[in-house]
Write a structure and sequence with these properties.
With about 160 residues, this protein is an alpha+beta fold. It folds into two domains: about 1-80, RimP-like superfamily, N-terminal (GMP Synthetase, Chain A, domain 3, 2-Layer Sandwich); about 90-145, SH3 type barrels (Roll), CATH 2.30.30. The protein has three helices and eight strands. The chain has a five-stranded antiparallel β-sheet with strand order 7-6-5-4-8. A three-stranded mixed β-sheet has the order 1-2-3, covered by helices on one side. α1 (about 1-20) crosses α2. The longest helix is centred in the N-terminal third of the chain and has 18 residues, at about 1-20.
């Protein structure tokens, strides 16, 4: 599909320039909107991205897209944002960036747990589930998302 090729080309063009300013490309989405397209680029970094970081990323993304021509001649609207809280945790850096947060994780055997991320590594994470720490292989997790806590009880 052309859109998948476009998305991959944009992501490839942006990865290194954004990495050079301390940001990771988390998602690229191209959506038709009438005669235009909407290009959404989600960026993140350890400690989270600030509004100033989004502004800097927007400048980098705009410059790279203009120079590389990966969006072609068709008009588009650029939106640079940070990933939402509902982003799935799929990479070790996602787990690292969410240490201390509550997560719902589904494993390859179909079981689901809710626990707090207390540690991470390249291939494992440590979840505190009902007060018991459990080391889990990231490869065993098929789905994971941060749970929103409005009234977190301090441990």
């Amino acid at each position: 599909m052309k859109t998948d090729q476009d998305r991959a080309a944009v992501e490839a063009a942006l990865a290194e320039p954004l990495r050079n300013v301390g940001l990771d490309v988390e998602a690229v989405e191209i959506t038709p909107a009438g005669k235009r397209r909407i290009l959404r680029v989600a960026v993140d970094k350890d400690g989270g991205v600030t509004l100033d970081g989004i502004a800097e990323a927007t400048k980098v993304v705009s410059r790279v897209l203009d120079d590389a021509g990966v969006m072609g001649e068709h008009p588009y609207t650029l939106e640079v944002t940070s990933p939402g809280i509902d982003r799935p945790l799929t990479l070790p850096r996602h787990w690292r960036r969410n240490v201390g947060r509550l997560v719902r994780a589904t494993f390859d055997d179909g079981t689901t747990v809710v626990g707090r991320i207390v540690g991470t590594g390249d291939e494992t994470c440590v979840l505190s589930v009902d007060g018991t720490e459990r080391t889990v292989e990231l490869a065993q997790i098929t789905k994971a998302k941060v749970e929103i806590e409005f009234n977190r009880k301090e441990d």
